[in-house]
Amino acid sequence: MIPEELLCLGERPLLVICDYDGTLAPIAVHPSRAFPQRGAAQALEALQRHGKHRLVVLTGRRAQEVHGFLGVAGLRVIGLHGLEWPGRPEQPRDRAAIQQIVSRLPQVEGMWLEDKGWTLAVHYRDTPEPLQPKAAALLAAVPLPEGWEAMPGKKVCEYRPVGYGKGWAIGQLALEHPQHHPVFVGDDRTDEEGFAAVLGLGGTAVKVGGGESLAPYRLGNSLEVVELLTLWARGCG
Ligand SMILES: O=P(O)(O)OC[C@H]1O[C@H](O[C@H]2O[C@H](CO)[C@@H](O)[C@H](O)[C@H]2O)[C@H](O)[C@@H](O)[C@@H]1O
Predict the structure, then answer these.
(1) Which end of the chain is more exposed for a tag (fewer CB within 10 A), N or C?
(2) Using a 6 Å cutoff on CB, does residue 188 contact ligand 1?
(3) Measured from the CB, is residue 192 less than 6 Å from ligand 1?
(4) What is the role of the protein in this entry (predicted)?
(5) 21 C-beta closer than 6 A to ligand 1
């Protein structure tokens, strides 16, 4: 159920920042199968047409993948936890660091690598369930090159250069839109830094699904996310 407070967030127009996996799309067995929740593209289009609100998708994926799934013309997508910012020069890639991390990874059954060029995600969803906690612990303990950090997510460990992240990106977006009330909707542990940032800015944090979170508001699943975006597009907010 959508908390009523989310339908009356005040007089300021909204800066809606939405995560992709688990938020606009249900979690799938493989990243290539994470199709958007039914109605998500239409809800995003409607929100974009709303004259006052601003809308951004902020994801750990490459931005082009999210565009491929959503197909919403003119949608602003910030990728790779803030490293990939449309309109800004491409960041240099540190391939040597990624290769070093790969060479230090543990051997775990079912584990596979998603090399995103600038960052690396190591997935263990296909690892037999009893081995998954150990896989998570081993991946978190991999010694990293200087200036790199590990971020645990849903059956994944992401390695990325420090200095970015969803919290950082939300701070940048809030500076661009000082008249708007920032709202961040996300589902994963990697989204907690975004919740902390948006709350620090006096904005609203909405967690999708179960699990501990800093976010004061909850939605049950991506279907409710679509409902909420649609209501905001109609002017409730
Ligand atoms: O920031 P997000 O948009 O939430 O992206 C986070 C990561 O999502 C993807 O992995 C996760 O979703 C997959 C599809 O549902 C799932 O199979 C996997 O277990 C999840 O970890 C994506 O593959 C990563 O690159 C993103 O960083």
Answers:
(1) N
(2) yes
(3) no
(4) Removes the phosphate from trehalose 6-phosphate to produce free trehalose.
(5) yes
Render pLDDT for 117-142 as a digit per residue (tens, 0 to 9).
Answer: 999 999 999 999 999 999 999 999 99
Which residues partner with 114 through β-bridges? 121
Q: Is the CB of 61 under 6 A from ligand 1?
A: yes
Q: What is the pTM assigned to this prediction?
A: 0.97
Residue nearest to atom 9 of ligand 1 (CA): 31
| CA-nearest residue, atom 23 of ligand 1 | 31
pLDDT per residue as tens digits for the range 20-53: 999 999 999 999 999 999 999 999 999 999 889 9
**Nearest C-alpha to atom 4 of ligand 1 is from which residue?**
21
- d(CA 51, ligand 1 centre) in Å: 31
Tell me if 75 is assigned to some domain: yes
Same domain, 72 and 170: yes
| Residue 142 CB partners (closer than 8 Å, separation 6+) | 101, 104, 105, 106, 150, 157, 159
Which residue numbers are catalytic? 19
ipTM over 0.90: yes
